[in-house]
């Protein structure tokens, strides 16, 4: 049956834009990005300050394309590297069409028993909010670990600090509320074209993601100051012309000789475990066999070395892919 133009359904406007995902360390920003991308782009560990660089993820739907900027956690920074991490996070606000402020609801609930500490934390948040000049959405994460009646006072407190356009409880790990949050974010994007092809999930290079995956395994297997004193540089990344394994050479930087010994482990056991776990994830990423060669180099006070931070993409003008 023919239909007149008046009866034709009106196509939805295509929306596209940048969403800056900011918030305190270990709030679940990278977990949320990976969920929306349906693949692992950003590394995740239980330790705070795992993310050091801005990571761009591209979430594409039938009528939208959301460019998400996963950022390092906001914290009071003293060392040069940590200061650069906070700068990277705050710089994304100048690029954003919408800001997603993601917080750990369980952490906030714990703070309720320490009013003085809670007031200090909210004062820090208010300072961050003062830098936001575009629509902002609040997401309370890890709500699967709390009772629903515990969330309302938190939402009320946040809305008293900043005029959020919406507040959405979610569990980035379990997926609860993430569809509602996605819809809310898309609704606050401007109309615009699709900037990236459907099958492009990130602008990060394979070298960058591989370095991050190796660093993740160090975070997961070492303790105390070791994870924060390490960095990974990819020295070479060679594909075999006949379809053989990709051969990757990488250097793990540490600040002290004792840290080198810990990462190597007794009879090389720790380094072997790191390499084995990294290979498994890298092969999944590259869809081919991988040979991974790891070296450890002691570089004293590298976290305050501008040249090394630049190599890691953490100096002004270099935030992003290696």
TrEMBL record:
Residues 70-73 are annotated as: G3. It is found in: Cytoplasm; Cell membrane. GTP binds at residues 23-30, 70-74, 141-144. It is a peripheral membrane protein. InterPro entries: G_ERA_dom (IPR030388), GTP-bd (IPR006073), GTPase_Era-like (IPR005662), KH_dom-like_a/b (IPR015946), KH_dom_type_2 (IPR004044), KH_sf_prok-type (IPR009019), P-loop_NTPase (IPR027417), Small_GTP-bd (IPR005225). One of its GO terms (cellular component) is plasma membrane. Residues 222-300 form the KH type-2 domain. PROSITE patterns: G_ERA (PS51713), KH_TYPE_2 (PS50823). Pfam families: KH_2, MMR_HSR1. Residues 15-191 form the Era-type G domain. The keyword GTP-binding applies. The keyword Membrane applies. Residues 49-53 are annotated as: G2. Transmembrane segments: none annotated. Residues 23-30 are annotated as: G1. Keywords: Cell membrane, Cytoplasm, GTP-binding, Membrane, Nucleotide-binding, Ribosome biogenesis, RNA-binding, rRNA-binding. Residues 170-172 are annotated as: G5. GO terms for biological process: ribosomal small subunit assembly. One of its GO terms (molecular function) is small ribosomal subunit rRNA binding. Belongs to the TRAFAC class TrmE-Era-EngA-EngB-Septin-like GTPase superfamily. Era GTPase family. HAMAP family: GTPase_Era (MF_00367). Monomer. PANTHER family: GTPASE ERA (PTHR42698), GTPASE ERA, MITOCHONDRIAL (PTHR42698:SF1). An essential GTPase that binds both GDP and GTP, with rapid nucleotide exchange. Plays a role in 16S rRNA processing and 30S ribosomal subunit biogenesis and possibly also in cell cycle regulation and energy metabolism. This is GTPase Era. It comes from Candidatus Electrothrix marina. The gene is era.
């Amino acid at each position: 049956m023919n239909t007149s133009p008046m009866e034709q359904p009106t196509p939805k406007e295509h929306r596209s834009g940048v969403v800056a995902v900011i918030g305190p360390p270990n709030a679940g920003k990278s977990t949320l990005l990976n969920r929306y991308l349906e693949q692992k782009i950003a590394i995740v560990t239980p330790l705070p300050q795992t993310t050091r660089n801005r990571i761009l993820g591209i979430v594409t739907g039938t009528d939208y394309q959301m460019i998400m900027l996963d950022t390092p956690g906001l914290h009071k920074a003293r060392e040069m590297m940590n200061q650069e991490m906070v700068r990277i996070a705050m710089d994304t606000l100048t690029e954003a069409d919408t800001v997603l402020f993601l917080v750990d609801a369980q952490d906030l609930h714990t703070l309720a028993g320490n009013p003085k500490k809670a007031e200090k934390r909210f004062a820090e948040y208010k300072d961050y909010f003062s830098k936001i000049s575009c629509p902002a959405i609040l997401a309370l994460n890890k709500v699967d670990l709390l009772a629903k009646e515990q969330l309302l006072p938190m939402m009320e407190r946040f809305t008293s600090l900043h005029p959020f356009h919406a507040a959405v409880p979610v569990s980035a790990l379990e997926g609860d509320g993430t569809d509602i949050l996605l819809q809310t974010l898309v609704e606050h994007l401007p109309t615009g074209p699709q900037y990236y092809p459907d099958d492009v999930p990130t602008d990060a290079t394979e070298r960058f993601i591989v370095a991050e995956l190796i660093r993740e395994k160090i975070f997961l297997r070492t303790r105390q100051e070791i994870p924060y004193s390490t960095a990974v540089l990819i020295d070479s990344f060679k594909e075999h012309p006949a379809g053989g394994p990709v051969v990757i050479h990488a250097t793990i930087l540490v600040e002290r000789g004792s840290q080198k010994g810990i990462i190597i482990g007794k009879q090389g056991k720790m380094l072997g475990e790191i390499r084995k776990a990294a290979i498994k994830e890298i092969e999944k990423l590259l869809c081919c066999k991988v040979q991974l060669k790891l070296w450890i180099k002691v570089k004293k006070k590298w976290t305050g070395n501008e040249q090394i931070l630049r190599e890691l993409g953490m100096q002004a003008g270099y935030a992003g892919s290696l």
